[in-house]
Amino acid sequence: MGANLSNLDNATEGSKSCHELVLVFHSTHKWKAHLEASKATNKLLVIDFTATWCKPCKHMEPAIREFAEKYTEVEFIRIDVDELMGVAQEFQVEAMPTFLLIKQGKVVDKVVGAEKEKLQKLIEKHRT
Where in this chain does the record put each Thioredoxin domain (predicted)? Predict the structure, then answer.
């Protein structure tokens, strides 16, 4: 039974949501492995630090889906701050939503709050 549970866990880790456009992590270990692997690429990561109870976060979900459809060369990631508190603390996330733009393992920009236009401008600035 333990093997079956770990297989199910592996199937959901790093799984995509929002119509297969946004990666969702449920484990700090798998997130860190993904972040480490991304350092070898020049791909922009946009991390959406969110919470299920956060109304502005819900308000931004359609925008994130829209951006993920438009900017296919960018990787969009959702991390629930209540589920992965350590990751949120590591990146000093203090308000939701917080969007971190990361390239080669380094934070290149940050948006705090439901600021769709600002986030889009920063994605366009850093995507290449």
Answer: 1-128
